[in-house]
From TrEMBL:
Swiss-Prot/TrEMBL GO biological process terms: fatty acid biosynthetic process
Source superkingdom: Eukaryota
Subcellular location: Mitochondrion
Assigned protein family: Belongs to the zinc-containing alcohol dehydrogenase family. Quinone oxidoreductase subfamily.
Annotated organism of origin: Cerrena zonata
Xref: InterPro entries: ADH-like_C (IPR013149), ADH-like_N (IPR013154), ER (IPR020843), GroES-like_sf (IPR011032), Mito_Enoyl-ACP_Reductase (IPR051034), NAD(P)-bd_dom_sf (IPR036291)
Gene3D superfamilies assigned: Medium-chain alcohol dehydrogenases, catalytic domain, NAD(P)-binding Rossmann-like Domain
Cross-referenced CDD domains: ETR
Catalytic reaction equation(s): a 2,3-saturated acyl-[ACP] + NADP(+) = a (2E)-enoyl-[ACP] + NADPH + H(+)
Protein name as catalogued: enoyl-[acyl-carrier-protein] reductase
Keywords of the record: Fatty acid biosynthesis, Fatty acid metabolism, Lipid biosynthesis, Lipid metabolism, Mitochondrion, NADP, Oxidoreductase, Transit peptide
Residue span(s) of domain Enoyl reductase (ER): 31-391
Primary residence: mitochondrion
Amino acid sequence: MLASIRILAKPSAARHANRAIVYPSFGNPSEVLTAVTYPDLSSPPPKSLNVRYILSPINPADINVIENKYHSKPSPVKTLAEGTVHAFSEPHFVGGNEGLAEVIEVGKGVEGYKVGDRVVLTKQQSGTWASARTLHEDDVLKVPEEFSDVNAATITVNPPTAYNMLHSFVNLRPGDLVIQNGANSAVGQAVIQIASRRGLRTLNFVRNRNDIISLKESLHSLGADHVYTYDDLKNKETVQQIKSTITHKGASLMLNCVSGDPTKDMTRFLAEGATLVSYGAMSKQPLSLPTSLFIFRDLVCRGFWQTKWYADHSREEREDLMQTLAELKVSSCADDVDKTTDVLSNDAQQLQEPEHEILTLKGAASDQEVAQQVREIISKMQGGRYGKKALLKFE
Ligand SMILES: NC(=O)c1ccc[n+]([C@@H]2O[C@H](COP(=O)([O-])OP(=O)(O)OC[C@H]3O[C@@H](n4cnc5c(N)ncnc54)[C@H](OP(=O)(O)O)[C@@H]3O)[C@@H](O)[C@H]2O)c1
């Protein structure tokens, strides 16, 4: 257990601790997560880079990985860098799959990277909840300059998922309707923007909450056409109202990251021959659908996993997708703003950053304090209605 993790080298100066959020075994994050301070990184071996993480998101799947409920498994950290004796007596896992890092030292034989470059990870479950790591050059990719730090830190998981789901399953034309649940998730926010950019209409569902009006306003400002709550699906009049606002044809694509009963109820807005793509199961409930949907409306059910997309595509295709997302200009509330003002002289902008909160882990704080901060935020996320993407920033 964690008590057996033992620091063999003196920790670096407290102000810039070389830290990571780790777990010695799978389990509930609020019980197994802790923080450790590593010795400073050695110089990187050939073909490797030392990086400093700038921002590292906490995604729902990261929690599932720690719980051992995810398809991809992390590898335990046994060595800090190739050829370096490990600093702890027990192997352990470093949390996090996604993140933005800055190159701070370049090993021999590395081509194409220099100190100061911003990179993201191509290797799955690399352990990004850390202040610094040594990475092989093949495991990173430079990020386009256009991206803000927040967009770059969140660019490998959610926007590509949204983009691919809107392009891979149904040949959508301007005016077509896409329906989705979890519309306020980071994926959902990207779906709204990318769909709106393509002239698609979106029918969005979210959970009810105290500040539902402001949540609806913020999704409309991203380009959402209709936003309703799952509770609305229980109200016959509202259902009729929704049916009258969408075309008689219904939605040809439905995106599901929630499952459970509300998802079943949403299928009444589907067109004949529609495709339902499942990519998450936030409610932890099964997806149960009436058989009649398959018989009388020829429903097609598919799944999507961005990790598999990466495994099936080349590094160049991955770079192209990231560049496409960097160059994507999305319509938004900017369209409604007086174009004569200086503020928004263009009527299109880059993909908006997801609603987020940056959790700074202070260098001067102890490992215990830092671990407590992370456990608390994950516990809030597990409680639901957290409403923003949390990003770790190690000082
Ligand atoms: N298959 C793939 O390749 C892929 C890629 C990216 C993401 N995903 C999955 O997509 C989902 C969204 O990811 P994200 O990073 O965009 O999430 P996120 O920004 O952290 O948002 C989480 C979303 O889940 C909702 N939610 C949480 N608990 C819920 C519950 N019990 N019932 C209904 N809704 C609930 C939240 O609604 P509230 O605000 O109401 O809590 C929010 O809309 C996750 O399941 C994630 O694993 C899959």
